[in-house]
Amino acid sequence: MIKVDVFVKNKNWKRYISNPRNYLNNNLKYLKRSIVFLKRKKLSFSILLAGNYEIKILNKKFRGKNKTTDVLSFPYHEAFELKKNKNTNVYLGDVILNYNKINKKNFKKDFNKLWVHGFLHLIGYTHKKDKDYYKMSNIEKKILNKIKN
To answer: Is 69 exposed, middle or buried (0-12, 13-18, 19+ CB in 10 A)?
Structure first.
């Protein structure tokens, strides 16, 4: 089971997804089906639905970058800890999504790309090296192909 807590900081999100928590909960099942080591755990994480202002502040404070971005992820565990963690109840961390970086014509498709990407960072996927990028990209595509937009 995967549980998500959703916090809406920017009200524009509701124009495209009236109940973000329900929307996400309906799609979380695809994560466990695609990532083997998650199957035996009860996981939780949070998503903050923000805008340019909020994400720029967080990006500067935590990453030293004074600019907006599309998604930020703050994992609670190191990747190697998560896989070895014997606890069945695990808090993964926080994902912040920027409303202003989503293509409004394909809103749900872009929204899904961002939250899945952020989630994968929470469980240890990165894209700093080419081989890591391809690995993360492949699992992302696998999940997104299962989600109905």
So the answer is: middle
